[in-house]
Structures are given as structure tokens and as C-alpha cells.
Amino acid sequence: MVKLTKLSWKLAFQYALVFAAVLIALNASVLYGVKFFLIYQAEQKVDSVSRAVEQRIIGPNSEQMTLGDPELINEAKSDNTLNIKVAGPSGKIVNGSANFNTLSVPMIDNINTARKIEGRGLNLVIKNTAVIDGGKVRAYVQVSQNMEKEYTFLKILLILLAIADTFGILFSLFAGYLLSRKMLRPIDKMTKAANAIGLSGLSARIEVPPADDELSRLAKTFNEMLDRIKIVFEKQGRFVADASHELRTPVSIIQGYIGIMDRWGKQDEKVLQESIDAIKKETLSMTIMIKKLLFLARGDNGSQVLQKATFSIDELMEEVSLESSMLASGHHFSFQGSPGLELFADRRMIKQMLRALLNNSIKFTPKGGRVTLLYTGNENNIVFSILDTGIGIPEEEQVQIFERFYRVDKARARETGGSGLGLSIVKWIVDVHEGEISIVSSVENGTSVAVTLPKLLELQL
């Protein structure tokens, strides 16, 4: 059974409906035009015969005929579609043909006007003429044209057109279905490709038609969407795997110390305290990591709400530098910048960004090294720069440092307490504020990080 809900059939029915409306309108116009032409010819004919009969009655004396002269209605004798009646001034019929019956049509009404009469078994074009000579009515003449043959032709033409319309509509329906199936074939391929995604992962792609039309552009867009989805899924899978790996280590440590406490901690207070300290350290590490994961997750799903307001850069930098200088004991820490700058942004997140960058520099800068925080601005932008004399980042790894859980110095990961999420959070904060971040670094020579944020972002809201 044909599914009429398919788009191909819906399009076919719409094509057929439009074609039927146009075809019926054209055929109706043709039928009306033929009928109008036939009636016009009949009116011209009865008008011509009426003038001829009138001329015989009031023509030159040598050519005048009496009202009862059989030759007066000569046209009716040679053409059985014509009927002529002649009446005297009183309206009494004195001469006429009997090709068909027109007694029901008065002769003295609608004088000198050709008209059409339909119904009551008649299909006629009639003209009544008053023959006037010397200001007096000499006679009345009625000329009628029988239209039965013409109306029969019109009926046959109507039937033929109706049959042609029926076959034309059915053909248009069938052809429209075939054409719509051909045009919608790329969409069927897209559907099959979409169904195959669950079976073959995200590797299935749609064959793009060679023609540069809407369907080919749709296929390209669909393939591009699959590419983006594949990248997101790969990142998500890697993120879940990395998160599981990162959480497995502290959990294993906690389970190990719990086992130690269960075996020896009950009798040995030293072992008990060591286990408690280790569990507290790993729990704190897990808590920090989970908070960072939740932050990034809210950022990914769009639920992380920004609280933007205009604030003083000087005040923020004093807070950040004071907190960082306390952490950077053993380092030479300094900050400087252009006074009087303001920024429209989420102050809490900008502070979090700066603290993360400074903490990163402090962790990977040996004791006695230098960490510098700079800030400058112009009419359009605010630039924060963090410079250090730390261990640096290899050039081939600089493009990966913003990936989640990526760490350059994996050997020092446990020592520094880094989870590989700090720079991912920094990158998200910079992106959500429509800024840019760049890194220049070389091994053993230190690292320079520059964050550029638009100063007048408030005017764009």
C-alpha cells in the first residue's frame, strides 16, 4: 500500500493540483473562446441575411419583391440551418420557411438586435428587423440561425477536453512522483547515513551531489555537522577517560591508606596520623578537581552565568598581587601597569583567570626565579601579561596546553598538584569574554602569557 504521507507523494499531489488548475483554466478559456467565435459568426450571418431580405423589400423598384414572394426567403431554401419569417405591418406572418420551429419567438420584440436564445429545446441566434420605407413600417423580418450543430461540437469538445484533463492530471501525478523521488534521493541518502551513525560510529558521510544546488549544500552542511559532532564526541570521550584516570589515582591512594589504618593504625598513632593526613590531602585534591570539572561542564552546556560590571583594574591587580606574592615566597614577584584603567567584565572570573596563570608560573619557576605581572590598556583593549623565568614549554607542546588534563611535565604532576584543568578554565574565561590569549615560551628560558580583552564590550550588549 502506498504511503501517502511520504514527501514524494505530497509533492506529486501538489504538482498535480497546480497542473490541474492551470490545465482546466486553459481548457475553459479555449472552450469559451470557441463558443464565443461560433456565436459571433452566427450573429454576423443573421445580420447579413436580414439586410439582404430588407434590400429586396425596399430596394429599387425593378428589384423589389412582394412580401409573399418565395424568392424573398431564398437563403433559407439553400441552408437548412436558417429560418426566415416575414410579417406584414400588422405583425401577421405572410411568408416564411419551415426548417425549424420559431413560432414561440415574437417577431416585433428586440427590433434590430441580434441575440442568443437558449433553452426550451432551442439553441438559436435570432435577429428581428423592422423594414421601414418612407417613415412607415413595410414589414417585419425574423432571421434565425440554428446552433444545434455548433452546440453539439462544443459538447464533444468539452468531453474531449475533460478526458485530456483527466489523463493529463494522472500523468502529471505519476511524473511528479518520479521527479520528486529523483530530487529527494539525496535526502534518502542522508537518512540512511544518519541511521548508520549508530552502527559505524561517526565515520559515515553523505555523498555530495555534483550539482551546486540546495540539496548539495544541505549534504555538505550535514557532513560538516557530522565532523563537528565527531570532534565533540572524541573530546568528550577523552575528557571522561582522563577524568576517570585522574580520579582513580587519589581514590586508590585513599583506599590504600584506609587499608593501612585498618591493619596497623589502630595500634600505631603515627601510622594513623600519616594516613589521615594523606587522605585529607587526596580528598582536597579531588574536591578541587571536581570543582574545576563542574566549572567546565557548566561552561560547555551554557549554564555558567556571567555577572558583568565595570570595575577598576588597579583594585583587582592589588588583590591578585597580594595573594600571589604570599604564594610566591622564595620568588622575586613584581607587578606594574597603567593606572586608572577600567574593564566591563565578570570581575570574579577575571580574577580567577589571573590567579590561575600566576599560580601556574609560580609552580614551574624554580626558587629564586622571577614572576612579573603587567597590565596595559588603550581605547579598545586591556592586556594582561604574565612573565616568568621558569622551566618553559617545548614548542611542539604549546598548542596543546589548553586541552583538558594535558600537562607538559607529567613527572612533576603529583608534586605540583596540577590537574591539567587550570589553563582549560583560563581559555574558557578568555573566550567567553571575546578575548585572545597567546603564549611565547622556550625551554629553560621562561614563559610569557598575554591575555587581550575588549575594553568597551559593554557597548556591544
Q: What's this model, at a glance?
A:
The chain has 461 residues and is an alpha+beta fold. The protein contains nine helices and twelve strands. It has three domains: 7-155, Beta-Lactamase, CATH 3.30.450; 218-300, Signal transduction histidine kinase, dimerisation/phosphotransfer (DHp) domain (Helix Hairpins), CATH 1.10.287; 308-460, 2-Layer Sandwich (Heat Shock Protein 90), CATH 3.30.565.
Topology:
Blueprint: H1 7-58, H2 74-78, E1 82-87, E2 93-96, E3 113-119, E4 122-133, E5 136-146, H3 148-200, H4 214-265, H5 269-300, E6 308-312, H6 313-327, E7 332-337, E8 342-346, H7 347-363, E9 370-377, E10 381-388, H8 413-416, H9 422-432, E11 436-442, E12 446-454
Parallel strand pairs: 7-9
Antiparallel strand pairs: 1-2, 1-5, 3-4, 4-5, 6-8, 9-10, 10-12, 11-12
Helix pairs in contact: 1-3, 3-4, 4-5, 5-9, 6-7, 7-9
Give descriptors for this structure.
single chain; 461 residues; alpha+beta; Beta-Lactamase; Helix Hairpins; Heat Shock Protein 90; 5-stranded antiparallel sheet; 5-stranded mixed sheet; 9 helices; 12 strands; 52% helix
